[in-house]
């Protein structure tokens, strides 16, 4: 693994142009792996998108990755990891691991007790990352139920420490 130059993880709004460009890159990557109708994106025109937490990773002031947390149910403390992506030219530097840890810390600070996610069977690099960080296979949930290309993972998070805020 190459040493990581400084990377900053910045919370952005859903209209951020860097975020949108990275999500477009992610969608193109997924379209090359899966049938178009099986890509589970984020509807940026839905007002509920405002409830999501979006993060962009900046390396030397260049946007190189993104990720998001979406509350699954207002009555629970479960969030879904969405739109997690690192630009191919910036991979193998630990950025994905650090961004995942950043998003987990934000989830904990927001009172989240569990993160769930969906990834595809044709994304071994993603599966390896999630397993490395303690995510365990779970039953398909929500829109992923019945999708033969989907795999879901979950991870219980520790309770926030006193004095830590989002």
Description:
A seven-stranded mixed sheet has the order 1-2-3-4-5-7-6, sandwiched between helices. The longest helix has 17 residues, at 17-33. 25% of the residues lie in helices and 30% in strands. It starts with 6 loop residues before the first strand and ends in a 10-residue tail after the last strand. The model has no long low-confidence stretch (mean pLDDT 90). By secondary structure, it is of the alpha+beta class.
Any descriptors?
seven-stranded mixed sheet, alpha+beta, 7 strands, 3 helices, 166 residues, globular
Write the layout of secondary structure elements.
Elements: E1 7-12, H1 17-33, E2 53-59, E3 62-71, E4 78-86, H2 95-109, E5 114-120, H3 124-132, E6 136-138, E7 150-156
Task: Round the mean pLDDT to the nearest integer and report it.
Answer: 90
Give the ordered list of helices and strands: EHEEEHEHEE
**What percent strand?**
25-35%
Largest sheet: 7 strands, mixed
Low-pLDDT residue spans: none
Strand order of the largest sheet: 1-2-3-4-5-7-6
Count of beta strands: 7
Q: What coarse outline follows from CA principal-axis ratios?
A: globular
Q: Structural class from helices and strands?
A: alpha+beta
Task: Write a short abstract of this structure.
With 166 residues, this protein is of the alpha+beta class. It has helices at 17-33, 95-109, 124-132; strands at residues 7-12, 53-59, 62-71, 78-86, 114-120, 136-138, 150-156.
